[in-house]
Fold each of these.
Amino acid sequence: MRTGIVAVWDTDREYAAKLSEYLDSQRRQPSAVVMYSDPETLRRAVETKQVSMTLAGRPVAGSPWLEGTPVLTLTERREEAAATVYKYQPACEVLRALTCFQETAAVQEFSYGEPARMRAVYSPLGGCLKTSFGLVMGYILAENRDCLFVSLEAHSGFRTLFERQYPVDLSDLFAAIRQGDSIRGRLPEVLQVFGRLKYIPPVIWPEDVREAERGELKELLQTLAQGGGFDELIVDVGPDLARPEEVLSWSDDIYMLEKADAFSRAKLSEYGTYLKQRGYEGLLERTHRIALDSLSEGTPAVHLNQWQRWEQLVPEVRRILAQEEADA
């Protein structure tokens, strides 16, 4: 998907034309690149909001009508000043400078106030309603805040549960990150809604989660938390990640669901020992330990479908969030 126009202008029209042609031909360039032959035409395009950023030589780069539009200045000698690029160097280097400049401009454009509060839901135990708890918590938080839910599980069940197929999902965002592209421009087309809760459809290819590298996960979550415009980010941390504790270390709060049987208690004890041995004991201090039995306390012990199960969780999750707020 291409977003906006990168306008190119220079006193050397032949140079501007060749540079525009090269930049526009690059698969990783997220915007259409258009050469403007005269400043007046460029000014009209800027004033009508067609241009998302400008790559221009002096004196146009300093024009007052460009104020409010990101401008990368083409220079005829190397300069240390920010937002400048030396024009007489290989075009691939100009492209690299342009890409970095676009990333910086995107952070400024898509950052709305404070970063989102990142809440991770995780348990080393299976079958403990972890995903259900995260969805219900996000659904409740979204009543008053802009909240996003992200599942980092290889097999989420979303497509079956919601009876939907998604044209764009988390696999596409991972692909963009691995190609060196920004994912911010893809958020509008990937986001889905559940009530007021926004969510990113989970991966369609399990290996995208199982083989995710630390840097890829960090870029994904930091982009969503810092540049997505959300107040809350709920991350369902699945067992398929090689090092789930690293994702947990980036989170503000961790919710760990527990079972009461002896085998589960033994697993949780070993998990705590592992965190201490690996230097992650700080995670235990900000982990909210939630007994699975408390989530269904007072309700009949009958088989429930998934929608009924979620309704059953609502009162207890509301209580947990209310207690959190009272303790803050």
Amino acid sequence: MPVYVHPIAADNDQLRQYVQFGINLYKDNPYYVPPLISDDMGTLSPDKNPAFDYCEAQSFMAFRNGEPVGTITAIINKAANEKNGRSQLRFGFVEFIDDTEVVDELFAAAEEWGRQRGMTEIVGPMGFSDMDYEGMLIEGFDEMGTMATIYNPPYYPAHMERMGFVKEVDWVEYRIAVPDAVPEKYSRIAEIIARKYNLSVKKYTSRSKIKREYGRAIFELVNEAYAGLYGFVPLTDRQIDHYIEMYIGVLRLEDVTLVVDGAGTLVALGIAMPSLSQALRKSGGKMLPFGWYHLLRAISGHTDVVDLLLVAVKPEYQSKGVNAMVFNDLIPRFHANGYKYAESNVELEGNENVQKQWEYFERRQHRRRRAFIKPIS
């Protein structure tokens, strides 16, 4: 039967069907971690995602004989294109059955949409901003993912190569053993750096207080620290407000470490969270009727894996050992909470400063993912 690709309207019914397709596709896969359906629907909705202030997007869904067989979202990040001087179309939220016609028709629809708007190349998978999913899995197909990353089977990158896509950039991920104690060298560095630069660790027990005092500063620091990374564009004020409400309200604050200078200015941070991977699998991406219970148990610490969501250091303090202060505080808390492993989540393969911070820990690089690129002819 022929394949038909249709643009998806940004309404609840169509977006729910769109997000649900991927969850259904992987229902028997033991390594797939579903998203929260409501979160992905919000990301794809212009009314809810402030990234649409500078992005244009269109989602497409492929059908055969009336049944969904694939999805793709075409995104033009105008701020990124202006920053980089390129005319790039991003693709993201891509899912498809292992079928050449389905894949070709999906990408043809996305590419034509971008071509009509003057785009000259297509790259992905990437999202609207650096806070979204990025990178197609090319190694580690038998490793369970995290809530912040994409899972896909090996036939995905095979289709990318078949269509003429090539490597643009790779990210790597590490599984890190949580030590019984802070490595001695880390402790010494943390103590020296604190004295030398008059820095101290700041902790909170009140979400409302950390929001009020450092909510904006956290994401402003992310803007500074990540400015030179591939694909990153600064978060806008509306995005910062959005992420303050979205994330800080659900964090376990003992897993949040802020490093401040003598004036109270935020210079570094580490934000971790108990892994929600197993809880999301049990919930099927739904909060109701019982998904909230599994997620609440995970957030409360009923897991032996912790996800490292954000580690950021102010540019003038990078390569000076300030991150040692972050982990000098977090590691004893990880150990006390029963975490045996930490997931690094994605790191650019060429980001040596980030990867050097793991050199004193037992670790293995267990996943690799790739952004693919090709011209739009």
